[in-house]
Structures are given as C-alpha cells and as structure tokens.
Design goal:
Blueprint lengths: L5 E6 L5 H13 L3 E6 L1 H4 L4 H8 L3 E2 L5 H4 L3 H8 L2 E7 L1 H9 L5 H8 L4 E5 L3 H5 L2 H6 L8 E6 L6 E6 L5 E7 L2 E2 L9 E6 L4 E7 L4 E6 L1
Parallel strand pairs: 1-2, 1-4, 2-3, 4-5
Antiparallel strand pairs: 6-11, 7-10, 7-12, 8-9, 8-11
Helix pairs in contact: 1-3, 5-7
C-alpha cells in the first residue's frame, strides 16, 4: 500500500519519540521510503543514529549544516516528500509552526513544504486547556488574505477536512483553480474531496486554518 511513497517524519522533542522509532520501522516495512528530520530536543531523547539504522537514510538535524545548505537542503527535503508526518507534535513545536518561526531544520522544512501534513499531538492536557496555551499556539498572528495550496500527490482521491480556530476565517476553498463555493466562519470545519493529482487552495484571514488529509 505504501510502496514507493516518500514519507518525511518530523520528530519533535518528547518522550513519545520512542514510539516514533517503531512508526518509522513499520512504514519502511510497508515499502515506503522514510527520511527523518529531528529537532535538537528530539535528539536528546533518541539519537539520530537510531533512525538512520531503521530507515537506511540520512537524518537531518541541523538547519545550519553547511554541506546540506550549500544545496538548500531543507528546500530539497521539503520538495522530496509526498507527505510530512510530525510526531510527536509538542506544544513548543506547534507554537513555532503556528507563529511561522523557523529556528530548526524541522520548522524550516515544514514551512517550505507543500506536501499534505499529518501529526500526532503530544501535549499535556493542562497546556491544552490553559487559557494562555491555546491563544499562543492555536491562533497565529493575523495575516489578511493569505493563500496556501497543496497538491494531492497520492495515487487516489483524498478527503481534506479544513478547520478554523477562533478568529480565523476562510473566504475561498478552490480545487484545481475552481472555487467550491464553500467558506468557513471562525471555529468551524468542512470536508472537501481533492482528486488525485489536483491541488486545493485556501484563502484565509485572521490566522492559519488546519487541514487533515485522509485518502479514500
């Protein structure tokens, strides 16, 4: 099922890193080519050598790696991936991504990638429920009429669930350049079918909406 697919694992720093090692092994067993990019915090839980041994591929850990960046390594890695899976997605990592901060190899790749993104959150419930927590990492600074697009590079159609948080709105949802007519008010969601090879485009304001891809 995954034979020939290029999966990029973005590994955050948390105790759940140990479970991601098993995930990498299972993906390789299913025939996928797996590459990993780790935050400095992730490397303190599990060494990059572990993931290199499991995947047979180089592990990326440094944003300022002179050898890799001579060829714009983080851009090449972002373009290589069919899908980006961020696990564990810690509160700190989510905050950096929501704010568009590029302070590590992982956040640089995530911001440069146009591949579908999935993730496994690893956030303490107290942080999730705290009044300050969601305001920090779930509602990024407003960027009026921002447009983002992603292509369905999979071999079959996908159902894309688009969701908005507080203060975030989506004015246009288009598939392959044609508006679907769907819009999203703050704190709402909708599901759009994106055929294989086609591109979904969102025009939004007030923060960044989230989307989850599920192959049909």
């Amino acid at each position: 099922m995954l034979a020939g697919k290029r999966i990029l694992l973005g590994i955050g720093g948390g105790i759940a890193v140990y479970r991601v090692a098993e995930l990498a092994r299972m993906l390789v067993k299913q025939g996928a080519t797996v590459r990993c990019v780790m935050t400095p915090a992730a490397c303190r839980f599990v060494t990059p050598l572990t993931f290199e041994a499991l995947t047979g591929e180089k592990v990326y850990t440094e944003l300022f790696d002179l050898t890799a960046e001579r060829e714009m390594g983080h851009i090449r890695l972002a373009r290589w991936a069919d899908v980006l899976v961020i696990a564990p997605a810690t509160a700190n990592l989510l905050a950096e991504l929501a704010a568009g901060l590029v302070g590590s190899a992982l956040t640089a790749v995530a911001c440069a990638s146009r591949a579908p993104v999935g993730g496994a959150g690893a956030v303490n419930l107290k942080i999730v429920n705290d009044q300050l927590g969601p305001g920090h990492w779930a509602s990024p600074p407003a960027v009026p009429l921002t447009t983002v697009a992603a292509q369905n590079t999979a071999w079959r159609d996908a159902a894309v669930t688009v969701a908005t948080g507080a203060g975030v709105t989506v004015s246009v949802i288009a598939v392959d350049g044609t508006a679907t007519g769907a819009t999203l008010a703050a704190s709402s969601s909708t599901t759009v079918i994106v055929p294989a090879g086609k591109t979904i485009t969102l025009t939004y304001a007030g923060g960044t909406p989230t989307w989850v891809w599920n192959l049909l």
